Amino acid sequence: MKASRRIPWIALTLLLASTTLPARAQTATEALGALWDTICATSSEGTLLFQRCDETVNSPDPLANAIAATGMHLEDIAGQGHAGSVSAQAPAPVQFEVGGVATASLSQDALGRIGLGLAGDEFGGGWSLFASAQTGRLDHSGTRFESAFDSRNAAFTLGLDRRINDRWVVGAALNHARDRIDYTGTVSRLDSRHTGLLLFANRSWNDAWSFDAYLGGSRGSADILREIRYALPIAGNAIAIINTNATSSPDISRQHAGASLDWLGRRGGWDLDLGGGIDLSRNRVDEYVESGGQGLALRVAKRTVT
Fold first, then answer.
1. What DSSP character marks residue 74?
2. Distance (Å, rounded) from C-alpha 76 to C-alpha 83?
3. Domain coordinates of the chain in residue numbers?
4. Could you read off the pLDDT of 108-142 as tens digits, one per residue?
5. CA 117: distance to chain centroid?
6. CATH top-level class of 79-305
7. pTM of the predicted model, to two decimals?
8. How many CB atoms are closer than 10 A to CB 295?
9. DSSP state letters, 269-299
10. Which residue among 97, 143, 187, 224 is buried most deeply as judged by most CB within 10 Å?
11. 18 or 213: which carries more pLDDT confidence?
12. Which of 211, 133, 209 is CA-nearest to residue 173?
């Protein structure tokens, strides 16, 4: 193997756009397997990467490169952009009224998470304070390009709104959320925490029509662990067993925006609620370099998931 003075970790910038590739395209694992010998040609003698490459070069198994690439679990990386993508939601409470005065609210977002908070005219002059705590879970079945995972979320929101007149309500909310992703079949995981600000407004025309909009963003960081595990036959009837982890702590940021229009009709004791809307989000994971990995740590380029 040719030795040269190069970095002892693998640069994987071109392999991580797999979620946007067409159905017949290579996965990140397949691409890495095809590039394995090229990457190994840049490794420096005496480094751990050189040792890993030496094991694949000298393995009697013709699929040694593919086995090593599969053990890198690159499809776990594709799911990192989903962490917390639904942590911040516009307040949408259903009010419980006692004696005609709203005293509490129960909110539920698109994933079925329940939040219990305060509502009503707390301070007079149209001002009110609300708070809510939410928890939720999401199971992702995975694709060729993205590993399956289970995601758990917990969030706390504290906000203030003001009723300007009979038609307008505006407000702002601070949100802190923690997310955990556990990848199916490996010990790979991601723990993130982020804090953000959400601005929102409601406009009603009469007892039937209402319009809601929100805009916000958050910043935070994530602790990522990626499992690397495979076994290769090598010279002398021996087996090289690689069972390790690579870790990283990139910064993350998110932007959210949405709007909805609703109509509430009452007919003969029945309430009919019709509506539609749009929610937009952009999640960014900054570039990071992994630690550990016994020579198989990665440099992962900045990614944006929409």
1. T
2. 12
3. 79-305
4. 444 444 443 444 455 667 888 889 998 999 888 98
5. 26
6. mainly beta
7. 0.76
8. 20
9. TEEEEEEEEEEEEEEEE--EE-EESTT--EE
10. 224
11. 213
12. 133
Q: For residues 54 and 2, what is the distance between their CA atoms, to the nearest angstrom?
A: 11
Strand ordering across the sheet containing 298-300: 10-11, 298-300, 288-289
Determine the longest span between alpha carbons in the chain, in angstroms.
85
Distances (CA, A) of 285 to 32, 36, 43, 215, 304: 21, 26, 27, 20, 7
Token pair for 11: 């640069």
Pairing assessment for the beta strands 10-11 and 298-300 based on DSSP bridges: parallel
| Rounded Cα–Cα distance for residues 193 and 175 (Å) | 11
> Identity (one letter) of the amino acid at 288?
Y
Question: What is the three-class DSSP state of 32?
Answer: helix
Core vs surface per residue 239-257: b (16+ CB within 10 A) or e = ebebebbbebebebbbbbb
